[in-house]
Design a protein that fits this description.
Distance between the termini: 17 Å
Number of helices: 10
Order of helices and strands: EHEHHHHEHEHHHEH
Helix content: 55-70%
Radius of gyration: 18 Å
Structural class: alpha/beta
Number of strands: 5
Shape: globular
């Protein structure tokens, strides 16, 4: 019943890896989806966000203006820290509930937590394996411009706002190099899946 953390910087190909692991049968828990869920109208998290950042972060339909809030806190370390203090505990609680639910349904499940902010928030959790999707920053910048329509300035700012690649690589048990084609990435994920029992067992011995 391995619990695996999957992380990577923006445009690193992490979603491609998560999708392929799900195709192999893994239960993928998406941290970004949980963030959206815990910020639904009427939630304690959204109420606290409004208290801290004002009612203008709410859309007319009562939902959170995620883009507007993101633009407000972007580049402001104090505002980001405040937002994290509100959101992260709720995300941690809900993610653990989903892990427990998956293992209760199938004690032999492979559960993958797709979590962008692993290094920033949850690196010390008891993961059986940490998988890092990695592509150099210049490759990710190009993807943001070509595939997501960002300006070069905005793309560079987004990459710079995240933890340095070296910090992710330092905690990795497995690195999947996504610099090449999607087929190259898929091949590496398939190899990871085939080796997963041995990798988890080796990590367990190493931590024992």
């Amino acid at each position: 019943m391995p619990l695996i953390a999957l992380t990577g910087g923006i445009a690193s190909g992490k979603s491609t890896i998560a999708t392929r692991l799900a195709e192999h049968g893994a239960v993928v828990v998406d941290a970004d989806a949980i963030v959206r869920d815990v910020q639904q109208p009427g939630s304690p998290v959204l109420d606290e966000i409004v208290r801290e950042f004002g009612a203008d972060v709410i859309r007319p339909d009562g939902s959170l203006d995620r883009a507007g809030l993101g633009a407000r806190v972007f580049g402001d370390d104090d505002a980001i820290a405040c937002l994290n203090r509100i959101v992260h505990p709720a995300v941690r609680t809900e993610s653990q509930r989903r892990f427990d639910e998956a293992f209760a349904a199938d004690p032999d499940a492979v559960v993958v937590y797709d979590v962008p902010l692993l290094v920033e928030a949850r690196v010390d959790d008891p993961w059986e394996l940490i998988v890092v999707a990695h592509a150099p920053s210049d490759v990710r910048l190009r993807r943001l411009v070509e595939f997501r329509g960002m300006s070069e300035t905005d793309a560079a700012a987004r990459v710079a706002s995240q933890v340095d690649d070296s910090a992710r690589l330092a905690v990795a048990d497995v690195v999947i190099d996504t610099t090449g084609t999607i087929d190259d990435t898929i091949r590496q994920v398939d190899e990871l899946w085939a080796r997963l029992p041995d990798l988890v067992a080796r990590n367990a011995r190493g931590s024992g």
